[in-house]
User: Fold Sodium/hydrogen exchanger from Sphingobium herbicidovorans.
Amino acid sequence: MEFIVQSTFGEIAALLVLAAVVGFLGIVLRQPLIVSFIAVGLIAGPSALGLVQSAEQVKLLSELGIALLLFLVGIKLDVKLVRSLGTVSLFTGLGQVLFTSVFGYLIGLGLGLGHVTSLYVAVALTFSSTIIIVKLLSDKREIDALHGQIALGFLIVQDLVVVLAMIVLSAIGIGSAGEAEGAEGLLSVVLSGGAMVVMVILFVRFLANPLTERLAQAPELMMISAIALAAIFAAVGELVGLGKEVGGLLAGISLASTPYRETIAARLAPLRDFLLLFLICPHRVDRLVC
Assistant:
């Protein structure tokens, strides 16, 4: 295979061919597409064929895919349903995090681990993979259903809690001097998150409808603008510590009230499915971060 993967283009071409073959086998075996893509990552990774050497380029595509996937989830959110389920998702999500983390902490102590290590184990056992669950719900067309919306609320609560938990654990791990830094980081994340929410509210109220009306005159430009919005929100979300997932979701929510949301979602769905391959790409699977 070395003669094929001597360039980045060759690597991606080989990866796409492998994805098509494994994906077809997955369909024959009646497996979800996400399972096939995970298998592609394992096969193409350094532990097997070692197809992908241009990790940075592939990682860039995967990060864009994350932003776009959550953007399309956000753009399809029913704002009224979110309002009615927000409290349910918040309290049940926090309850699940607390319940699982307590038992994870006790398990860590039971295995003879230290207090800080047990806390890390507890946090690790608490959280789910937002990307995989969202994709499975989307494939089954259940993301708009009641249980899909509640599950999405769970995932968003988990994503926010993990950011705060990592800040607190970092402060605990590096001592009293780090506690002040941890508190500042926690406050920074909360304030940044609030600022992003306010920005979305202002965008929805004053800019979303007139902007999409103007962009609709050139459909290609509207698609590019939607991708740009997802990317910039994801970048800002990562910059302020909320993560690309939350940023992409907020970008989608900012356009969820426009009359063109279904058009945008339909046109970007094929691009999302293409980039999904790189979400479970070899460099992510072999580092066990998918």
